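quick one before i forget lol
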Amino acid sequence: EILKPDVILFEEQLPANTWVASKQALDNCDLLLVIGSSLSVVPVADLPVRAIRKNANIIIINEMATDFDKLANIVIHRDVAEILPKITKRVLYV
């Protein structure tokens, strides 16, 4: 038996139903969080553009710069494993 996280790993095919659900959710979102993605692989790389067309805010958290950083409202260049617990703690215990 293979133990696998519930995420799409690099070079894996994105299931069609996941893609459709993502686009539908994006059409109604106020904020798109991009966490730990270079946004360099299509079709996921198209999500920030779709969010902007719907007037959503974008926060990108990634160790390295992305081509979409200039479009984001907030950009944090840090290791996700390091910064996400700190952000979560601040948000939950403000």
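fyi The CA atoms of residues 59 and 74 lie 5 Å apart.
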